[in-house]
Amino acid sequence: MFGWFTKKKEQKNEETIHNSMNTIRDTIETLEKKERLLEKNCEAEQAKAREFIQEKNRTAAAACLKKKKQYEQQIERLQQQKTNLEAQISQIEQSTLDVEVLKAQQIGAKALKSAHGGLTVEDIEKKVDEFSDTMATANDISRALSQNVSGGEMFDEDELEAELEGLQDQLDADDLGKIQQLTVTKTTITNTADGTKTQVTTKKARKMTEEEEELARMEAELLA
């Protein structure tokens, strides 16, 4: 009768552990989805910052980059939380294995006691105490890994300014590539000293019109 209750208790403990691990894994999956969403938000703010730089609106571009930094900090916190949860799963698995090992050791101890009669109650209690200490240490580690690691949002203004300058330099380089020199050929007919006529070809450079610049921009985008 006592063995039946013990078995039922063990089954309940196993179900509790299994359900707990499933809950943790579901939470990790939720964190990963949130992380992917934040990464998309970072890319969107980066693109908007580039557009504002093109429009010479550095204030709006800086605001976009600050939002991007906020998203990046949220991603870092999510990654740390995910790491904490993954560590908990590993600890639960290890603790479960420790319990199985202890059960095996207890079975072995009983077999040795039956065979040799050398084991005492004090020896068994010592092993139980050692296991209790191990479980307490595991719980302390789990609590430490589960601590809130979130902090205040901080921005490096120099880093932000450097990123703005980088976007400006990149756009300036793109604009220089669009300013090309077109050559116009002009042919004239002149009289030589002996009365014959000859053709003289001259070339001059002119700057691209707005329409030609637009065509060049479209061509560059197609080749990109």
Automatic annotation (TrEMBL):
Q: Where in the cell is it found?
A: Endosome
Q: Which family does it belong to?
A: Belongs to the SNF7 family.
Give the UniProt keywords, A-Z.
Coiled coil, Endosome
**What protein am I looking at?**
Vacuolar-sorting protein SNF7
| Gene3D superfamilies, per the entry | 6.10.250.1710, ESAT-6-like
| SUPFAM superfamilies documented for this protein | Leucine zipper domain
* Gene Ontology MF terms: DNA-binding transcription factor activity
**Entry keyword annotation includes Coiled coil:** yes
Q: Which residues form a coiled coil?
A: 21-95
